[in-house]
Amino acid sequence: MSALQHFLAMGGYAAYVWPAYAVFFVVLIADSIAPALRRHRVLRELRARLARQSARQQRQPPPATPSA
Amino acid sequence: MNRPGLGTACAAMLRRDLALAWRRRGDIAMPVLYAVIVATLFPFALGPEDTLLQRIAGGVVLVTVLLAMLLALDAMFASDIEDGSLEQLVLSPQPLALLLGMKILAHWLATALPLIVIAPLLAAMLHLPGTVIPVLLLALLLATPLLSLLGAVLVALTAGTRRSGMLLALMLLPLCVPAVIFAAGAVAAAQQGLPWLAPIAWLAAALVLAVVLAPLACAAALRIALDA
Amino acid sequence: MSDWIPLWLHKLGSPPTFYRFAGKLQPWAMTLALLLGAVALYGGLLLAPADYQQGDAYRIIFIHVPSAWMSMFIYAVMGVASFVALVWRIKLAEVVAMQSAPIGAAFTFITLVTGSLWGKPMWGTWWTWDARLTSELVLLFLYLGVIGLYHAFEDRRQGARAAGFLAIIGVINVPIVHFSVNWWNTLHQGSTVNVFGQSKMAWDMLWPLLTMTLATKFYYAASLFRRARTDLLDMEGGKDWVRKIAEDEADR
């Protein structure tokens, strides 16, 4: 048996050790991707809001003096 | 303006809540009916053998009563929030914690007491030995107010949210684990002929602590949840 | 506020300053976490010898135990931050408390799953109602309750205060649950599981464990910084400094 195979077999406990490590990494990777996705969404929504605001201001300039 | 004494205010609060509960008698019957239905379903699911039912009877009755109380918990402050009387309560000159304590007492009298009354019936349906029933009642008498008090704090926390009964269950579960363990432990010990005083004493200690602290926590939680 | 608190701490509490500060530190924390994690994995999976009793299955310890420590450490951080948020009404403390909750829940979940995967070959069962396991499960429910309550409110700051209150109640609750489950186990004479008992760990097993613990601490810092930065952007959406960031990133 090659050294790699021996390592992957984990002394017969491969079915338990590797899933445990897989869960550890999958959960933590998901945890570190989540804020990046949310950041993109937040900034995109903010830019859309700002664009809408400036478009509205260009179409109808606000009155110089607010009416009572 | 001379303000009414503390005792008068508390008595008025209790009278008002009990009167309101009495006018909606149908709502009081709901948790009782629920508990009867659940307890009836267990023998059908597990089979009618006496020994098996006897073994699980105490736990089934306790969990059934707990779930029935959870069903009614959501409504503890709901109508008061809708008509704005809870905000009046927060603004009143009397200490909020004491008035909330009265509300919790009224809620316990209206929902938990009927459940305790039918608990012997449920226990008998599941063949719990007659000698154990007093211990079961004692455990329920201590555990149900504890659940009412803990539940009130959580209901107060969710006061400002859109209603979600599932969230309340999720929040209550970690808090009620010790109460269930000691109440069921006392019944199990009594059933095995072991001394059951220790778990009852632990329950009583927890109840004393909750009676003092929970109304204060409830008041603080309500102030957070209503402070917009 | 009292003058014994240094000025830089006040400044750090302001969202734009913290945003920049966290942005500077976050890559360093992440790099350290990855580096230490790689070293710990090398030490734990390749260098450390197999346990004479548990064979190679014990290697789950290198992620299980650090995760378990983190699940409690993060809960403590959340409790302290919630307390600060409730007493002094500092916005940043609310953000730290609420953004810690998902990370803590993730570590608690990892602890439960890896513990279960370890328990199956060692004790022959996926789950046992031992005090330590039950407390960890209750901790997961507490985390989920805090997250759920936070999202149930329309107003984010109010949600953070309410959920913070729940987190503080939970700090009192966990030891009580642990104690009561211990008592319950003696009544039911359940299987008493004692893995860490008196056994002393050999140094070449201990150092990867401690290194991984450090790695998870740095990971938590990096993840918290990221989440807090995103949350601040979302919260302060109308402010000028956020607008500038949004416009700068659009140009790129």
From TrEMBL, chain A:
Keyword Transport in record: yes
GO cellular component, one term: plasma membrane
InterPro entries: Haem_export_protD_CcmD, Heme_exporter_D
Compartments, record wording: Cell inner membrane
Residues spanning the membrane: 16-37
GO biological process: cytochrome c biosynthetic process; cytochrome complex assembly; heme transport
Alphabetical UniProt keywords: Cell inner membrane, Cell membrane, Cytochrome c-type biogenesis, Membrane, Transmembrane, Transmembrane helix, Transport
Membrane topology per record: Single-pass membrane protein
Domain of life: Bacteria
UniProt keyword DNA repair, yes or no: no
Reported function: Required for the export of heme to the periplasm for the biogenesis of c-type cytochromes.
Family stated for the protein in its record: Belongs to the CcmD/CycX/HelD family.
Protein name per the record: Heme exporter protein D
Organism: Rhodanobacter lindaniclasticus
TrEMBL record, chain B:
Residues that span the membrane, as ranges: 28-46, 52-73, 104-126, 132-155, 167-190, 196-222
Single GO term (MF): heme transmembrane transporter activity
Main location: membrane
Keyword annotations: Cell inner membrane, Cell membrane, Cytochrome c-type biogenesis, Membrane, Transmembrane, Transmembrane helix, Transport
Pfam families, per database record: CcmB (PF03379)
Protein name: Heme exporter protein B
A biological process term (GO) from this entry: cytochrome c biosynthetic process
Known function: Required for the export of heme to the periplasm for the biogenesis of c-type cytochromes.
Family: Belongs to the CcmB/CycW/HelB family.
Localization terms from the record: Cell inner membrane
Superkingdom of origin: Bacteria
Entry membrane topology: Multi-pass membrane protein
Gene Ontology annotations for the cellular component aspect, listed alphabetically: plasma membrane
Species this chain originates from: Rhodanobacter lindaniclasticus
UniProtKB/TrEMBL annotation, chain C:
Gene Ontology BP, a term: cytochrome complex assembly
One annotated Gene Ontology cellular component of this protein: plasma membrane
Residue ranges of domain Cytochrome c assembly protein in the record: 16-188
Keywords: Cell inner membrane, Cell membrane, Cytochrome c-type biogenesis, Membrane, Transmembrane, Transmembrane helix, Transport
Subcellular location, record wording: Cell inner membrane; Membrane
Gene Ontology MF terms: heme binding; heme transmembrane transporter activity
Topology within the bilayer: Multi-pass membrane protein
Family: Belongs to the CcmC/CycZ/HelC family.
The protein's role, per its UniProt record: Required for the export of heme to the periplasm for the biogenesis of c-type cytochromes.
Protein name according to UniProt: Heme exporter protein C
Origin species: Rhodanobacter lindaniclasticus
Lineage of source species: Bacteria, Pseudomonadati, Pseudomonadota, Gammaproteobacteria, Lysobacterales
Gene: ccmC
